[in-house]
Design brief:
Structural class: alpha/beta
Number of domains: 1
Strand content: 15-25%
Helix content: 25-40%
Length: about 240
């Protein structure tokens, strides 16, 4: 497996993603991975490695800046907050990551999807909403509220993997998301796991005061759903 850290930049901020891909000269379908509110950490790096082992080129995006990681909920919120307040900035930063990824050797730029966790799930949906030329977007326990920007035709197919008991994305937000996707003419799916809270894929995310609890069964089911989705969208 090929592995490397890759620097890129946006709006004067130096960013550093992590790239993993099979050792082959043949371009592979690519998967962008967008991190949760704490930054580009070991969790998404390991996901990139797992996808590379399955034959994909994978790139763990950095939305905050090289070496910038939150140390806890308060700091994480300060890092994420500006991007929730300025979704145009977030869209442009994600686009910069996509452009960097598409330029890497070993990536089939015509066969790219994005996936993300929590805040990264919102990022995945926002890149799709931007009209980017990607095949798919996968949100794991992400936030669904729209960015409030001008609407662009969504080219990606969309898969949302959601804990139905997640207090950060309650049922009305789910219904509104479904309406948004339907009105936009998107080929979309939503898998809701009953009794499952926020951050269900993260073993360390056991904080009931924040509505977060790891669920091994939902984590396994959602990963398999994602793999099935990739098999479908990558021709």
């Amino acid at each position: 497996m090929h592995q490397q850290y890759v620097e890129y930049s946006h709006a004067g901020t130096v960013l550093e993603g992590f790239y993993a891909a099979p050792d082959t000269s043949e371009p592979r379908p690519g998967v962008l991975i967008s991190h949760a509110w704490g930054g580009r950490d070991s969790f998404v790096i390991e996901k990139a490695k797992s996808l590379a082992e399955l034959g994909y080129a994978a790139f763990a995006l950095d939305n905050y800046g090289k070496g910038v990681l939150g140390s806890g909920p308060e700091e994480n919120q300060k890092l994420m907050g500006p991007f929730l307040q300025d979704r145009g900035l977030l869209r442009d930063r994600l686009t910069a990551g996509l452009q960097c990824f598409n330029s890497l050797p070993g990536v089939d730029a015509a066969q790219v999807a994005i996936m993300g966790y929590c805040f990264g799930g919102l990022c995945a949906l926002d890149l799709a909403r931007s009209g980017a030329a990607i095949k798919g977007a996968v949100s794991f326990h992400g936030l669904f509220f729209p960015p409030g920007l001008e609407k662009r035709p969504i080219q990606a197919r969309v898969l949302a993997l959601h804990g139905y008991a997640d207090p950060l994305a309650p049922p009305q937000q789910v219904v509104d998301f479904g309406t948004e996707m339907t009105d936009a003419g998107v080929d979309w799916q939503l898998h809701a796991y009953g009794g499952v809270l926020h951050a269900f894929t993260v073993p360390e995310a056991n904080d009931l005061s924040m509505g977060a609890l790891y669920n091994a069964r939902a984590a396994r089911r959602s990963w398999q759903a994602m793999l099935d989705f990739f098999e479908e969208i990558f021709e």
